[in-house]
Amino acid sequence: MAHPRALREYSQVRTKGLRRPFHAYFLAGLDHVPTPCLLCQGRSHGGHLCRHCHVAVTQSMRGPRLRCTVCCLALGGAGTCPDCAARTPAFSGIVAAFDYAMPGDLLIHQLKVEHRYATAGALARLMADAMRCAGIALPAHTILVPVPASRASIRRRGFNPAGEIARCLARRLDLPCRPMLLRRMQEGGRQTHLTRRERSRSAAGLYACTQRLDGRCIAVVDDVLTTGSTMHSIALELRAAGAASVLGLVAARTPF
Fold it and tell me: Whole-model pTM?
């Protein structure tokens, strides 16, 4: 049986000169190809999750838990967002597919650590589903931009996880993906063990926009959003370059 990712790459070549509606129908048809579920190995389609695992991964986003209306952080009893309280975000909002917790975090691990590239397509589908559930329809002139990875990360993994997800999401949404619109100006350190304040200082001035974006809508794609410092720093640069709006699209949002 052909691998779903190979089928999608084949479809790009075979349908390059065809009309967009037909291409969209072709890609939609691939979602019905029988494949194992990425988490439980049960019956699924298109290299995605089975129905039960899909519910398990996304159910926290569908529950009654109070969330920040801007950065999508799950809030405590006080109902105040520590990230947005520390600084007013430059981005207009965040759409996240699931909380960065079991079992959804296993999908991030599959892509970033196990290098299972097909997981990028599954994450993109979850993100598109989250946008649909939130009633968000991006304007036709929206550009998708992945968060650039550091050179050290590229050497370690051999690829940019955000870039892989952005390419898959762009095909699913039929929007352009422009990785070169953002450039990482310095290496910086790994942010895994940094505090909120340290993350904010680390992300400041880390990215630059390479061209004018007068009036364009930008959707910045990343795998995991923790404090929003990286997204905030990028949004500042994009708005300085003339972007009309900046929306963050992430696979996972840290829940605390």
Answer: 0.84
